[in-house]
Design goal:
The chain has about 750 residues and is α/β, with parallel strands linked by helices. Helix content is about 50%, strand content about 20%. It binds ligand C2E. InterPro entries: Biofilm_reg_signaling, EAL_dom, EAL_sf, GGDEF_dom, Globin-like_sf, Globin-sensor_dom, Globin/Proto, Nucleotide_cyclase.
């Protein structure tokens, strides 16, 4: 704080403090010198009687320091110099008093005591003469009043500074702060800081004088008025719609401001925009209960709803659980990638949700597994109706990544309480019913029955055992000879998997390959089979047993593995086998699912030197145009077409067509399932290159095959039992001449 010379002059003029007064005090200076010492002790003793002032004089050292300051002040008071330095010093002292908390009332009171003591000293200094005393008294009074005015100014200044600081602090706060009158019904706003305008998106000052935070009828902030009106002091969370209709969440701390009489005169509110936090909380809550991909309830929320349904079932309200599993979804995922898989799941979820009622819970449990909880009267019939509607809804192909993808589902229904009265049993039984639907040819619905439970538990046991089969050395390969139709010499063998189960005996691949595909261990099994076949070929070569080639089956899932060619190459390298010894059999259905991808995958395999055979040919509806584009070496005529030969004209026509087609495309034909001499004769005559079937040999262990070959008089020797087709045939892409 500063007071300039003009202001000092003005104050002095008003007090009539003139040079005459200064001279008057200067005149008695000598007589007064040291007078203060006489009354300083009494002055401080007096001050210390009052606890509040005694607290400011805590020890003797402080009092001694103050007495010295006191002496300096006394000297300056009677020095007669009341210019800018004098004023600045008085202001400094005044500011110190304000800072240490010496309030004006005590300061003025103490000044009174000081003045009384000084007047007595002046009276003595003027020799008790009224004429001499009065001018000195008058001069002293004027200087003291000048001082008092300055001191009061410092208090006011200090207060103003504190208030300004508070204002700046509130203005700088990131919290919105407002003060509203406590006058209902409007509770008008009398103060709002900048943050409040910012949070509420209104122009600064625009809200002042308006009904409390309710700038328009629909801005939603009437709720704050309500909070005040309801006396909801403390913490409240409010929400309102912004102008763009988005929801804003606000946390409000409201407190009444009381007047001196104790009545509530105002309300002070501090508010924060907590929309981001609320959104994050909502997101977390959503993540905890909903599946992020499809937006459907997740397992956790489903478990909750199921528990509630079970509780209601105890009071007699039945319900149904409908398990939904997409058919061959893994194939979509593996062949088209996860992007397409996700798109299918989203679309499937959307279609299923459209056929459920809002009262039913459709949840995604995992991967391609969904469940529908159907509650209310007639839940069994309604579950069946919903299941049928789900199948119908999934019938049109799903378009993902520009392709039409056919989806279908198998559905299993279990009823509460008939099929189970607890969550585990119901889920297990709905699952078993779903598996029964799959077994019944997929894309269908099954209700649960007891027998299913037995089958399901058997299957589960099989699944568990199968996972351990490789590690426990329970898998073996058997080899079925493939003979050149023209001369019966050995064209190669097909390696076929067998599972030697410790209790069940030999399990057919027809029973365990689908399970391995579903539980995701087919790649492991397939790679084991390829490695084993390769090792066997190396062993035969080393021992001079001439098996020209081994055909190994590749499952659809393996086939769609992006790094299949590299994996196969690594397996062969590890076994020390040459790629030319290996023929890979892929089914027509797997190849035709996505022909252009298949063409690329097969190209890479062929580049590595492998032969490619299309298995079960004739069952997968290949289009000729597509077939031409696939880099194949062999077509395997499905044994379904062989079985009724030569009597069935249709099958005879098919066999003939396949041979003609293969010939045109430069492929050789292997006919499988040859059981009779008549079939052999027919196929050989038709021009099949290679024949495979029980007529020649069943699938044999490696040792049995060696014995079989030895019995024929050498591995590749023409079989004396075989007739020779008098045609030139192509053996696995390589022309050979039939012996005459
Ligand atoms: N009725 C009859 N059947 C005959 C005749 N000659 C051969 N068979 C059988 O026909 C099946 C030929 O194999 P596939 O078509 O590749 O069909 C195979 C193949 O798709 C699959 N499989 C076998 N081993 C593997 C493997 O290592 N990996 C994969 N992914 N699948 C395999 O299991 C299927 C069945 O294999 P298997 O039970 O060994 O059945 C074999 C074989 O035993 C015959 O004259 N009459």
């Amino acid at each position: 704080m500063r007071i300039d010379a003009t202001e000092i002059a003005a104050r002095k003029a008003f007090l009539e403090l003139t040079e005459t007064d200064a001279n008057c005090l200067r005149a008695i200076r000598e007589q007064l010198a040291g007078a203060q010492h006489g009354f300083a002790d009494g002055f401080y003793a007096y001050l210390r009687q009052l606890p509040e002032l005694a607290a400011l004089l805590p020890d003797a050292a402080t009092v001694a320091r103050l007495k010295q300051a006191h002496g300096r002040y006394f000297d300056s008071l009677i020095e007669g110099e009341y210019g800018e330095d004098y004023v600045a010093e008085r202001l400094r002292v005044g500011m110190t008093h304000a800072r240490i908390g010496l309030t004006p009332k005590w300061y003025v009171g103490a000044f009174r005591k000081y003045l009384s003591d000084m007047l007595r000293a002046t009276w003595r200094a003027t020799g008790g003469e009224a004429e001499a005393f009065m001018p000195a008294f008058d001069a002293l009074l004027k200087v003291v009043m000048l001082d008092l005015g300055l001191t009061l100014d410092t208090y006011i200044h200090a207060d103003k500074r504190a208030i300004a600081l508070r204002d700046r602090a509130i203005e700088s706060s990131v919290n919105g702060v407002f003060i509203a009158t406590a006058a209902p019904p409007d509770y008008r706003l009398i103060y709002a800081n900048a943050a409040l305008s910012h949070i509420l998106g209104s122009a600064p000052g625009a809200m002042i004088g308006k009904p409390c935070l309710c700038t328009s009828a629909e801005d939603g902030f009437a709720v704050i008025r309500e909070a005040i009106a309801e006396g909801r002091n403390g913490y409240t969370t409010l929400s309102r719609l912004r102008a763009d209709r988005s929801r804003q969440w606000i946390e409000l701390f409201l407190a009444p401001v009381r007047s001196d009489t104790g009545s509530v005169s105002h309300y002070v509110g501090v508010l924060n925009d907590v929309t981001a936090r609320k959104d994050a909380e909502a997101q977390l809550a959503f993540l905890a209960h909903y599946d992020t991909l499809t937006g459907l309830p997740n397992r956790s929320l489903f478990d909750d709803r199921l528990a509630q349904a079970l509780a209601r079932a105890e009071r007699g309200e039945d319900f149904a659980l409908c398990f939904v599993d997409l058919d061959r979804f893994k194939l979509i995922n593996d062949s088209l990638g996860h992007g397409a898989g996700d798109a299918v799941l989203v679309e499937v979820a959307r279609r299923m949700a459209a056929v459920c009622r809002s009262a039913d819970t459709l949840a995604r449990l995992a991967g391609d597994e969904f469940v529908i909880l159907v509650e209310g009267a007639g839940s069994a019939e309604r579950a069946a109706a919903i299941a049928r509607r789900v199948l119908a809804a999934l019938a049109p192909p799903v378009v993902a990544q520009g392709r039409d993808i056919d989806v279908a589902a198998s559905l299993g229904i279990a009823l509460c309480p008939v099929d189970g009265a607890d969550a585990d049993t119901l889920l297990r039984n709905a699952d078993a019913a779903m598996y029964a639907a799959k077994a019944a040819g997929r894309n269908t619905v099954r209700f649960y029955d007891e027998a299913m439970n037995r089958r399901a538990s058997q299957r589960l046991a099989l699944e568990t055992d199968l996972r351990r089969a490789v590690a426990r050395d329970q898998l073996v390969l058997v080899y079925q000879p493939q003979l050149v139709a023209a001369d019966g010499s050995l064209a190669g063998v097909e390696a076929l998997l067998r599972w030697q189960h410790p209790e069940r005996g030999t399990v057919s691949p027809l029973d365990f390959i689908p399970i391995a595909e579903e539980v995701g261990i087919i790649a492991e099994l397939g790679e084991w089979a390829l490695g084993e076949a390769a090792r066997q070929m190396v062993d035969w070569r080393r021992r001079g047993i001439d098996v020209p080639r081994v055909a190994v089956n590749l499952s659809a899932r393996q086939f769609h593995d992006a790094d299949l060619a590299e994996r196969i190459e690594a397996i062969l390298a590890e076994a020390g086998a040459s790629a030319e010894w290996i023929e890979l059999e892929i089914t027509e259905t797997a190849a035709m699912a996505h022909p252009s991808d298949a063409a690329q995958a097969l190209e890479r395999l062929r580049d590595k030197g492998l032969q490619i055979a299309m298995d079960d040919f004739g069952t997968g509806h290949s289009s000729l145009a597509t077939l031409c584009k696939l880099p194949l070496n062999v077509l395997k005529l499905d044994r379904g077409f062989v079985h009724h030969l030569p009597d069935s004209d249709t099958d005879a026509a098919v066999a003939d067509a396949v041979v003609t087609l293969a010939c045109r495309l430069g492929l050789s034909v292997v006919a499988e399932g040859v059981e009779t001499e008549a079939q052999r004769q027919f196929l050989a005559d038709t021009g099949c290159d290679v024949l495979q079937g029980f007529l020649f040999a069943r699938p044999l262990s490696a040792a049995a095959l060696e014995a079989w070959l030895a019995a024929r008089g050498g591995s590749s020797s023409p079989s004396p039992a075989l007739g020779c087709a008098s045609v030139k045939v192509e053996q696995h892409g390589q022309k050979i001449s039939a012996p005459s």
